[in-house]
Design goal:
Elements: H1 9-28, E1 32-33, H2 35-42, H3 46-54, E2 66-67, H4 68-79, E3 85-90, H5 94-102, E4 110-117, E5 126-127, E6 130-134, H6 138-145, E7 149-152, H7 159-168, E8 173-176, E9 190-193, H8 196-209
Parallel strand pairs: 3-4, 3-7, 4-6, 7-8, 8-9
Antiparallel strand pairs: 1-2, 5-6
Length: 213
């Protein structure tokens, strides 16, 4: 059964969580699981899980539940993790280095093909075996290698000009640590905006207000 024509963003955002939980089940040696047990582990309702998966055809069997290996493989195919979308990273400072060294890109459906930084002293150096290029080489690199995703580890003030260059070079998806709101300024762009400060403020709010709940 094919996926529905319209899938809500909330369902799409739960897919990576299913994918992660199923990986944990595989590590535990679990081969099958009911929607009820999966709901208890994930703190979702069994009905919500069934509705989410039914958007893509279901995958479960009544009286059996879900085959963990099959379901994770199917969700991985839905997400497209095996395609390995080419990605570049902009900004080889502390954050950029940390992401390059410690993030397993192939595991999450990407291949990091280039790193760029404005600092001329970094040109030609390597991070985790990947060459750092000067920003002056960005357009030519994009023309030749056609990256689909850009990871922005740059200051907010630098982001507008960099985004304009990237969009003009064909990049349409961003993992954005810059705090610059790409979607407000460029049409047809997919952006995941990572605001760690917002997450920490939310956590602090909940710590300070937990007795009021």
């Amino acid at each position: 059964m094919p996926a529905k024509n319209y899938i809500s963003n909330s369902v799409i955002r739960r897919l990576p969580r299913y994918y992660r939980f199923l990986a944990d089940l595989q590590k535990e040696g679990t081969t099958k699981i009911s929607s009820g047990e999966l709901s208890r582990r994930m703190k979702l309702t069994a009905s919500q899980i069934r509705q989410d998966l039914n958007c893509y055809g279901g995958f479960g069997q009544q009286g059996y539940g879900y085959n963990v290996d099959v379901l994770r493989r199917e969700i991985g195919a839905i997400i497209g993790v095996e395609r390995r979308a080419p990605a570049i990273l902009i900004g080889a400072g502390n954050l950029g280095k940390a992401i390059t060294y410690f993030f397993d890109f192939p595991k999450y459906g990407c291949e990091l093909v280039g790193i760029f930084d404005i600092n001329p002293q970094l040109d030609g150096t390597e991070i985790a075996g990947i060459s750092v290029r000067n920003m002056t080489k960005l357009t030519a690199f994009c023309t030749k290698n056609k990256p689909e995703i850009a990871i922005l580890c740059i200051p907010k003030a630098s982001a507008p000009a960099v985004c304009e260059t990237l969009v003009e070079s064909g990049v349409r998806a961003f993992l954005n640590f810059s705090h610059y709101d790409i979607n407000l300024h460029f049409d047809g762009i997919i952006a995941e905006n990572v605001h760690m400060g917002d997450s920490l403020l939310t956590l602090v709010y909940n710590v300070n207000n937990r007795e009021k709940k």
